[in-house]
Structures are given as structure tokens and as C-alpha cells.
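Q: What would this chain look like folded?
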Amino acid sequence: MKNSTLTNLVNEMAAGSIRVVDLTVPLSADTPIIGLPEEFKQSPAFKMEKISHFDKDGPAWYWNSFSCGEHTGTHFDAPAHWVTGQNYKDGCTDTIPPAKLVAAANVIDVSKEAAENPDYLLSSAKIEEWEKEHGKIEAGTWVLMRTDWSKRSTKDFLNYAEDGPHTPGPSVECMEFLAKERDILGFGVETIGTDAGQAFAFDPAFPAHHLMHGNNKFGLASLTNLDQLPPKGALIVAAPLKIVQGSGSPLRVIAITA
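A: My prediction, written as C-alpha cells:
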């Protein structure tokens, strides 16, 4: 690639012909967090505390401390997050090659299906149908499942019932297809986690985690504004914090698109 390519990109962005779309939800104490069965340790909510704000504790500066679980808000799932991906040398947030943090996106729109059925499962048949119109999904690219779930209220977003959460996600065979036959970089969703709400009952359970991370691939959860992206052509920048031996982190995901 010539330097002129980057120069043209910057010029087009400055002219407004190329858009930068924020795919990130705000991170605050109100950010929904995933709930686990009572026998497991829970992830803490986001918490921010003031250190100083132009006062006696720091007369010329404002700053805060914050704490949260690695998988809070819009967040990155590294392979090390799941038992099947625990042994990859490049599977933690500090060891992932930076070139993998910038990649093209394929946006599969199933918002209509998810509105009609909160337990909707993305299938390989649906993806192949999408490919007939938009072209084959290339290796090393993101697949983002657009459900418009991020537009819901907090209660409807989590959508808990007596038998657990009911949110859309991928089927087992869909994850096998994307991991092995399309060799994608990773899978992203608008829901609180990359798996469907009822995925604990699948075989294997939580296939987006089990199969993506088991194949040294990534996850993005709690995305938003996927309705602002084309099916193909957007470039995704998704760089987690470089936490030593981190399993993931909150991050700001941006898309560059025409």
C-alpha cells in the first residue's frame, strides 16, 4: 500500500465522504451486566470514583478511578476467556497481534427475525442466503449479527424469564460454519454476550464462546449502531486494553465506512 492510500483516506474523512461510526454503548453504573447462576462468582458493575476535580485533592486536574469486570458494556472477548481457548500463546489481550484489531466487517441483518422471536438463532443457511446477495464472507473478517437489540430498554435488553434470558444469537452449526468453513476473525452481537440467551442448553453449551475461542477467534458484545453500517465495506477498529493476561476488556469499537 502506498502512503497516498492513507492520505486519501484521511482527506476523505475530513471531507465527510467517509464516516466514522461509533459502535459502542456508554459505560456507567447503569450499564447492564450479565448475571450468572448463584453458585458462581458474579461480575461487578462498573464503578467510578473521583480522585480530584480542581479541588484540594488536585487543584489543577480532574481524574477518576474506575473498576469493572473485563466483560462489561461493549467489550472484547479474547480466546483466553473460555476454557477451549485457554492455551493459545497469542490468546490474551496483551498478546493478540495488533494487525488483527483492524478488519473488514460483514453485517448480517436479522433485526426483523429478532423482533418477531427473541430466541432467534442465526443459521449457516441464513448466512449463505446473505452471501448470494452480498458475496462470500472472507477469511479474517468480522461477522456482526444485527438485531437492533441495543435499542431496547435495560429490562427488555436483558429479557430475563423464569427459565433464563431470552435473547437472539447463533446456533451451534452456525458457529461451526463460520469458524471452520469461513475462518472468520470473530463474531459480534448487540446483546450482552455473544451467545443466545438460552445457549446454556445447547450442545456444546455457549457455542459462540466454545467454538470461536476454541479456534483462536474473538468476540464483540453489546455493540450498537449496526443499522448504520452497510452489509459489506465497513472497516472495524476493535482494540481492547492491553491488560497482561487479560481475557477481554471494555473498548470503544469504531467503524469506518462510506
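The mean pLDDT is 97.
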